[in-house]
From TrEMBL:
The gene is cytR_3. It comes from the Bacteria. Pfam families: LacI, Peripla_BP_3. SMART domains: HTH_LACI. InterPro entries: HTH_LacI, LacI/GalR-like_sensor, Lambda_DNA-bd_dom_sf, Peripla_BP_I. Keywords: DNA-binding, Transcription, Transcription regulation. One of its GO terms (molecular function) is transcription cis-regulatory region binding. Residues 2-50 form the HTH lacI-type domain. This is HTH-type transcriptional repressor CytR.
Length: 333
């Protein structure tokens, strides 16, 4: 096990200097503190003194450019609540840490965690292009990633819902209503979870003997492109149902269809994904696939607790649930 003396020997400085740097002493320069932290991480050092404190510090790291969380109607709000409901009674001090790409590029994930005295993190809202996604491949500080999966690092775990099951529920439901021409509309595939849902849609369509084609699939980073390019193509090609990869996109699709003169669900059925509060408030209310976000937050803590206890959990998936509302209907005979 790496000690403070090992770090001091590696850097050629005194043990007291390393100790001061690790404990944020004011007489240590920022440059030296950074060098000590980076050396400590490289040698595999962990601050064992943290476990002796009455309260153990963990954090929820949120990519603030990708994920909203401050208000009850925001997607991540209940996830954070669920995590804290389990962590705080168990004696953990939970801090919410918004980060962006600039923060990630400025220091390695392990260095950031060591610097701020966190023993583990629940990571929410990261896309595949975020710098710390690469750090997680070799990081040593326990990290549970919501909707992201890292191969080969026992210090990381993945928490989410079963997207395969969720998409099967959506396709199976529409097929049972008589729909054969089903389209898929998605925002950018820059996140692992969105790639997973896209692939799950294709597999489920194949399993039900339903044809897919490029003309019935639309993916774009921009909502305007989804509405102005992909949606009109679907409607022109006689699509009778659209599965959207998230509720906000489904809500926009529903509104745009109505503005184009199509009645939902009489002319076209629409299914969303997530069951955000907005889904029950659209007109008509939106059929969707529910993610229980409160339970996802609790699962994030269970997974992190496992990693902190040296149990190399890999994946923790919750079941998806079909919520039937009024945006879908049976195809008339």
């Amino acid at each position: 096990m790496t000690t403070i003396q090992d770090i001091a020997d590696k850097m050629g400085v005194s043990k007291s200097t390393v100790s001061k740097a690790l404990n944020d002493a004011p007489d240590i320069s920022e440059a030296l503190r950074k060098q000590v932290l980076e050396t400590a991480v490289a040698l595999g050092y962990t601050k064992l003194r943290r476990y002796k404190k009455p309260t153990k510090k963990v954090c929820i790291i949120i990519e603030k450019e990708n994920m909203r969380y401050q208000e009850p109607h925001h997607f991540a709000y209940d996830i954070l609540v669920g995590f804290r409901q389990m962590a705080e009674p168990a004696g953990f001090d939970v801090e919410i840490v918004p980060v962006d790409i600039k923060t990630q590029r400025s220091q390695h994930y392990d260095v950031f965690m060591l610097k701020h005295d966190y023993i583990g993190a629940f990571v929410v809202g990261f896309s595949l292009s975020d710098p710390w996604i690469q750090d997680f491949k070799i990081s040593r500080t326990p990290a549970v990633l919501f909707d992201n999966y890292i191969v080969g690092n026992p210090s990381t775990a993945y928490v989410g819902i079963d997207n395969e099951e969720g998409m099967e529920l959506a396709v199976s439901y529409l097929a049972g209503l008589g729909h054969r021409k089903i389209a898929y509309l998605s925002s950018s595939l820059g996140a692992r979870v969105l790639q997973a849902r896209h692939a799950a849609f294709l597999r489920s369509m194949h399993q039900h003997g339903l044809k897919t084609s490029p003309a019935a699939i639309g993916c774009s980073y921009y909502l305007s492109e989804c509405m102005e390019k992909h949606l009109p193509r679907f409607l022109e090609n006689g699509i009778t149902a659209i599965i959207c990869n998230q509720d906000t996109l489904a809500s926009a699709t529903l509104t745009q269809c109505q503005q184009l003169g199509f009645q939902v669900p009489d002319d076209i059925s629409i299914i969303g994904f997530d069951d955000l509060p907005i889904a029950a408030c659209t007109s008509p209310p939106l059929t969707t696939i529910r993610q229980d976000r409160l339970e996802l937050g609790k699962s994030g803590f269970f997974a992190l607790s496992s990693l902190l206890n040296h149990i190399p959990i890999s994946t923790y998936l919750l079941h998806a649930q079909l919520i039937q509302r009024e945006s879908t209907r049976k195809i008339p005979l």
